[in-house]
Specification:
The complex is a heterodimer. Chain A is 22% helix and 37% strand. By secondary structure, chain A is α/β, with parallel strands linked by helices. In chain A, a hairpin with a 2-residue loop joins strand 1 and strand 2. The relative contact order of chain A is 0.09. The longest helix of chain B is centred in the middle third of the chain and has 15 residues. In chain B, helix 2 crosses helix 3 and helix 3 packs parallel to helix 5. Chain B is globular. Chain B has a 6-stranded mixed β-sheet, with helices on both faces. A 4-stranded antiparallel β-sheet of chain B has the order 2-1-4-5, covered by helices on one side. Chain B is of the alpha/beta class. Chain B contains 7 helices and 12 strands. The chains are: A alpha/beta, B alpha/beta. At the A-B interface, helix 8 and helix 9 of A face helix 2, strand 6, strand 7 and helix 3 of B.
Chain lengths: 440, 245
């Protein structure tokens, strides 16, 4: 039985599981989703959106679809994966199962809890009916697969006029008690009018067993809401991640998603922004630093449908050894979306001789009174700059690191949580293999 | 201090320097002049250790040791400084941070601790006012969007900060107007002492009005074809280079 067949047959068992809700609405969403997955199957390189990313190497395993969670983990052993320097809410999952022991949830000023309980409780039915599955693609097969198995993940519901006093950390651990596991976390984030939230998300496997995570996050930002979402992808080289993040924004909201892809075997990020009002700002930032045969694919889509909105997109990539990258940035400006200001920049440095990047900026502009720009560069280390720095006494290794660090610095500068900025700076130094303090 | 012995060097299969001999002592200023393509910039790159060029024959000796096997940063640690004809723009690294990194790299190579921030700032203030520099350049990305003159002034500022034993000024005068030229020359003169030496590489005699050399060498086709005192520069200004070929 191949993985697709295994998943489809597992779906019946999953849906019949008495432990989960019987809400017909969600049931219908799941059933439609499995049908779509069944019809489409896993994406292949024949599809335009998957031309440069093959899933073959990660689909060959016999994944356990319902991992058993019987290993307890001590906070002290996993502390380093948290932003432990600061106060925060924490929503933690171990092998796809909520860990109340590691979490710090709340219902005080906002619901910062888990999807499985939200799906069960009548008091959240209205929110679930209104938002769940509403913007996650119904055509994309991996998103459908997640929707079909959606059961657990972070559920964050922030009422209007609420500024959360501390960030929320969403951490998904896999312990590898079984040799090959597949996880399908599903997050729902609803941010009320004038509210503000900062989120730090991480997928982390704790040993070298094979893990495939197929995550879906839906973010709804109501009027004037501010959402800062940071994705830190620094997993083991045995772990792969497909991250699908869908954002819907209402008038005057500002949503920023920053993706730091430093690890993993294969990482695919699908990030979509949908505008439902004027004066919206969408920020998409990313840094990729990979080596060996690692692969990172950033697919972004911003759909401008209303007037006076802005999108700012900045992705940088540093590729060593035989690592490969993809950047596909699509910006669509509808005919009605006059006075749009859309900016996109993607810069890449190939450090390794066998590294490669496929970059594709795609702008489809149907309005005539807009300001849209895009740029894309792929280059190598500047030998003149290296000699210049060396001639001032800076050793080659440090000179290289300083140049690469400076290259990514404008993305780092956009991080608004100081502890995270420090952490990312340190991670970058680690990735560039220098023991070097960068102060820009 | 620096002795160049029968130096042959080139790029790929092309020999550019064809037997250079030069002896520079502490406290001296040497000017190297010559027409375009004579090998002036190659000579400065080879002394600084640019790996693009290959040394075919001969030796470069500094303080009794050959430096040919040293990397550019190791040469910098020994006190060699090259002011570039075309300084490189480095986006994202401020001038202050760059010079701080350079100074501390040199100190680390000598087994010293980082220079305390307070001392660093004081030094930056002193040296930048010596060159009449607008401080706003210090917090901007190194050379990015600087005019030609600003870049050259920044080179001399870095030289002042690094206090080299041997400074090579490669066409520092190109791109400078007369006022900037005076400031730069004045800066170089103030940094001179009996323990350091300067090699001024230039096409024109103009800069040598302000930085007066002890020796002038004429480079042609990869060889020094004539050496003399400061007066040789004037002679070249009058007669051009043709009579030496």
């Amino acid at each position: 039985m191949n993985l697709k067949e295994k998943l489809i047959s597992s779906f019946m068992a999953f849906e019949n599981n008495a432990d989960i809700d019987i809400d017909s609405h969600v049931h219908d969403i799941r059933s439609d989703a499995i049908s779509n997955f069944e019809a489409k199957g896993f994406p292949t390189k024949k599809e335009e959106e998957w031309k440069y990313t093959s899933l073959n190497s990660i689909l060959k395993y016999d994944y356990s679809v319902f991992p058993k969670n019987n290993k307890s983990i001590e906070y002290k052993d996993v502390k380093i994966y948290f932003l432990h320097e600061i106060e925060s809410y924490k929503i933690v999952f171990v092998d796809g199962v909520y860990s109340s022991f590691l979490s710090d949830t709340s219902h005080e000023i906002a619901d910062i809890c888990i999807l499985s309980s939200a799906l069960k409780r009548p008091k959240y039915k209205m929110i679930i009916d209104r938002y769940f599955g509403k913007i996650a693609s119904k055509n994309e097969s991996l998103t459908s697969l997640n929707t079909a198995f959606s059961k657990e993940g972070a559920f964050i519901n922030i009422p209007k006029n609420t500024v959360l006093p501390k960030p929320i950390q969403i951490i998904n651990f896999s312990t590898g008690t079984e040799s090959e596991i597949m996880l399908q976390p599903r997050n729902l984030l609803v941010v009320g009018e004038n509210s503000h939230v900062e989120i730090y998300e991480r997928h982390q496997s704790l040993n070298d067993n094979v893990v495939l995570t197929n995550a879906v996050t839906e973010i709804f930002a109501n009027k004037r809401a501010i959402v800062d979402f940071y994705k830190v992808q620094n997993d083991k080289k045995s772990a792969s991640l497909v991250d699908n993040t869908y954002v819907q924004q209402k008038e005057s909201s500002v949503v920023s998603v920053s993706t730091f892809s430093f690890g993993g075997k294969l990482t695919r990020n699908n990030l979509e922004f949908h505008h439902e009002g004027e004066h919206i700002t969408s920020n998409l930032n990313g840094i990729t630093i990979i080596e060996d045969k690692q692969h990172v694919d950033n697919h972004t889509l911003v759909k401008h449908k209303f007037e006076n909105c802005e999108s700012h997109e900045l992705y940088k990539g540093i590729y060593d050894d035989a690592s490969t990258g993809v950047f596909n940035g699509k910006v669509i400006v509808n005919k009605e979306a006059q006075k749009t200001n859309a900016y996109q920049q993607n810069d890449n440095i190939l450090v390794g001789d066998k590294a490669a990047v496929n970059a594709k900026p795609q702008l489809e502009i149907f309005a005539d009174d807009v300001k849209c720009s895009h740029g894309c560069t792929i280059g190598q280390m500047d030998e003149n700059a290296l000699f210049y720095m060396q001639s001032r006494g800076i050793p080659k290794k440090e000179a290289k690191a300083l140049l690469l660090f400076a290259f990514g610095n404008d993305v780092v500068e956009k991080i608004k949580i100081p502890a995270l900025k420090k952490r990312i700076t340190k991670l970058i130094a680690e990735k560039l293999k220098v023991d070097f303090e960068f102060k820009m | 201090m620096l002795e160049i012995k029968d130096l042959h060097a080139g790029i790929e299969d092309k020999e550019i320097l064809r037997g250079i001999n030069l002896n520079i002592k502490a406290g001296e200023i040497h000017a190297i002049m010559g027409p375009n393509g004579s090998g002036k910039s190659t000579l400065s790159s080879v002394i600084a250790g640019n790996e693009t060029y290959e040394v075919i024959e001969g030796d470069i000796v500094m303080d009794d040791n050959s430096i040919l096997e040293l990397s550019p940063d190791e040469r910098a640690h020994k006190g060699i400084f090259l002011s570039f004809q075309y300084p490189v723009e480095i986006p994202g690294v401020t001038t202050t941070n760059f010079i701080k990194t350079a100074i501390n790299a040199k100190r680390k190579a000598k087994g010293l601790e980082d220079l305390p921030a307070k001392d660093m700032l004081k030094m930056i203030r002193e040296k930048s006012s010596l060159l009449d520099m607008d401080r706003k350049f210090l917090s901007r990305s190194l050379n990015e969007g600087f005019s030609g003159g600003e870049k050259k002034r920044n080179e001399i500022f870095q030289m002042a900060m690094l206090e080299p034993k041997l400074a090579i000024l490669d066409e520092t005068d190109s791109g400078l107007d007369i006022d900037a030229l005076k400031i730069v020359a004045n800066g170089v003169n103030k940094l001179r002492n009996e323990d350091n030496a300067v090699i001024v590489i230039t096409h024109y005699q103009r800069l040598l009005e302000y930085i007066v050399p002890d020796f002038v060498h004429v480079l042609h086709d990869g060889k020094i074809v004539k050496s003399g005192g400061a007066e040789l520069a004037h002679e070249l200004e009058d007669k051009g280079y043709d009579w030496l070929k």
